[in-house]
């Protein structure tokens, strides 16, 4: 007989069980994005970045042809990952650069979470490559963008067909928190949400200001 127990599903993310890989959130790559508003893309990328740093997630940040063509990273990324390296490369598929795969191997986690520009090139390439080599992959779809809705949607569908798991930026952060009784990261999570999570963040501000409302008794 199947029985329920209060334990999380094995596919749910925790702060220490995966590596976040942010790929090519650069100005030139963003100019052509049409599948998502650039303001929303920057906000979602900032939310993911701040959540990853706040929760201590191992992270890899990459660029392509930064100095010669694609330009700087979004400031939201450089400001948040101010002390870490940025791996620049020439290959469209980051997985084909040994800097990236060597770093993945150094960190040693078989679960990888991806986001970047463009979905159909910079994300499809490494995700399919990682899956082919036995890694478990997730894609934060609203921290990705492409030249059209069609390009983004077909890329996401292709990755899902290969076994990748899609999620959103806010979902990513709340999955890392997952229990409001975790007081050590409660202020971090609600603080990021108030700043970057749109209507949900305004709702947190309202509840706290108007009647001292808090999740989990905090």
3D architecture notes:
The chain has 218 residues and is α/β, with parallel strands linked by helices. 38% of the residues are buried. Helix 2 (38-55) runs antiparallel to helix 9 and helix 6 (119-132) packs parallel to helix 7 (149-162). The mean pLDDT is 94. The protein is built from ten helices and six strands; from the N terminus they run βααβααβαβαβαβααα. The radius of gyration is 18 Å and the shape is globular.
**Mean pLDDT across all residues, rounded?**
94
Number of helices: 10
Low-confidence stretches: none
Number of strands: 6
* Helicity range: 40-55%
What composes the largest sheet? 6 strands, parallel
The outline comes out as globular
Distance between the termini: 38 Å
Helix-strand category: alpha/beta
The share of residues in extended strands comes to 5-15%
Q: How would you write the strand order of the largest sheet?
A: 3-2-1-4-5-6
List the SSEs and their pairings.
Blueprint: E1 19-23, H1 27-31, H2 38-55, E2 58-64, H3 66-70, H4 75-80, E3 86-89, H5 98-107, E4 111-116, H6 119-132, E5 136-140, H7 149-162, E6 165-167, H8 169-177, H9 186-196, H10 198-211
Parallel strand pairs: 1-2, 1-4, 2-3, 4-5, 5-6
Helix pairs in contact: 2-8, 2-9, 6-7, 9-10
Keywords, please?
about 220 residues, alpha/beta, six-stranded parallel β-sheet, 10 helices, 6 strands, globular
Would you summarize the structure shown here?
One of its GO terms (molecular function) is hydrolase activity. By secondary structure, the protein is of the alpha/beta class.
């Amino acid at each position: 007989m199947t029985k329920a127990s209060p334990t999380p599903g094995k596919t749910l993310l925790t702060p220490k069980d995966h590596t976040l890989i942010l790929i090519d959130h650069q100005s030139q790559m963003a100019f052509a994005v049409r599948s998502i508003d650039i303001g929303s893309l920057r906000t979602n990328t900032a939310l993911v970045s701040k959540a990853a740093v706040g929760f201590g997630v191992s992270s890899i940040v990459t660029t392509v042809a930064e100095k010669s063509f694609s330009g700087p990273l979004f400031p939201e990324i450089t400001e948040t990952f101010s002390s870490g390296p940025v791996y620049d490369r020439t290959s469209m598929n980051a997985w084909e650069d040994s800097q990236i795969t060597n770093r993945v191997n150094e960190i040693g986690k078989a679960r990888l979470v991806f986001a970047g520009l463009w979905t159909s090139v910079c994300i499809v390439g490494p995700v399919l490559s990682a899956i082919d080599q036995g890694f478990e992959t997730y894609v934060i779809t609203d921290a990705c963008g492409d030249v059209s809705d069609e390009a983004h949607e077909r890329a996401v569908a292709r990755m899902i067909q290969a076994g990748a798991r899609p999620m959103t930026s806010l979902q990513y952060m709340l999955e890392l928190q997952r229990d409001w009784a975790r007081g050590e990261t409660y202020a971090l999570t609600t603080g990021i949400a108030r700043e970057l999570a749109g209507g949900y963040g305004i709702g947190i501000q309202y509840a706290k200001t108007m009647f001292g409302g808090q999740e989990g008794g905090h």
